[in-house]
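Q: Sequence in, structure out?
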Amino acid sequence: MTARADEVGERSALWRDRNFAIFWSAQTLSVLGDGFASLAVPLLVLQVTGSVALMGLLTAAAGVAAVATAVFAGVLVDRADRRRVLIGCDLVRAVLFTAIPVAWWWGPQLWLLYLVLPASAAVGMLFRVAYVAAVPGLVDVRRITEANGKLSASYAVAAVGGPLLAGVVAAAFGYATAIAVNAASFAVSAAALMVVRLRQERVARAVTSLAQLRDELLDGARFLWRHPVLRSLTWLLSAFLFLTYGLDDVLIYHVRHNLAGSERTVGLVLGIAAVGTVLGSLVVAPLRRRFGFGATWSGSIGLAGLAVAGVGAARSLPMVASLAAAYLGAVAVGAICSLSLRQEVTPNHLLGRVTSVFWATHYAFGPLGAAIVTWGAEAYGVALVCALAGGGCLLVALAALVTPVNRG
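A: Exactly. Output:
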């Protein structure tokens, strides 16, 4: 068989692989459900309070919980059966999100959101660490970027449909019902993951002392900080997230408040914007092969910055949706490049801990950024905040050119 035939066979095998197909389908469905929550929760807060700053506070609280969990998630993921961790996280999130529509039968319960969202963010962070560590157990290392691109593209297709359907459901049955759809998607995802098998599944082992826990955390930290590209990438992405963590809330506020859009309009804008993620996910692998990691990553961050600045200045819904799509497409390219590089260069037994340390650092300033960005949008206007955030993203892209990231 020729090398070309081998390549074609490998590409077709990725789609036909049973474990990958089930994993991909389950997580795509879960992302479809997430689209309901990502639209309904901010609108629920806006309906009750009318404040984008309180929307940002909720985002920040969830971010703090995620950061705190990220510190220790990697130790658990590297010592436990990763598939069981994924299933457990889905089941817990199904219960948490079910609590919101149940409680709303007795009227608005804003306080519950400040309990459920941080708790679900903490569980979600554990899921994400386990998810990243599980992908190399599904595909060969040479196909990690391709697999991540395909997963991200299908997730984005679901993200297009999620907000669109959520807008219709929210308008017809209320925001709480839209959140119930998200809860159901987690339950279905957990059921599907029960039949997935991973290579090199972990055997659960207990941490017997605080000293052992410390040493295992330090193992992941040492690998991350001693790798020049991963170290530089971590700091650059942390700065990028600080600038952009609250932008989803700002976009919803801009469409709903400044442009007088309805719930369905918000869902339509978010759905169109998610098309950008689809396109970015499909082109990331060929872009990285053609231009290399450094140029692809820094270029995507620069494009994201330009798009953010444009969103704030846009005064028509089609322009806002188009710029948001450009932003999400650029973010998808940068995120998939970063994720794939970590999976490729990190030993499997350290992948959970390295991911954990990366995200703990990456998200450390995100909640503060979300609070500042949303407060600034309410106090000084969306246009100014987006201009400053977009300019900051351009500086991050330029900084990457003089770091080891450019040689990655």
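The chain is about 85% helix and 0% strand.
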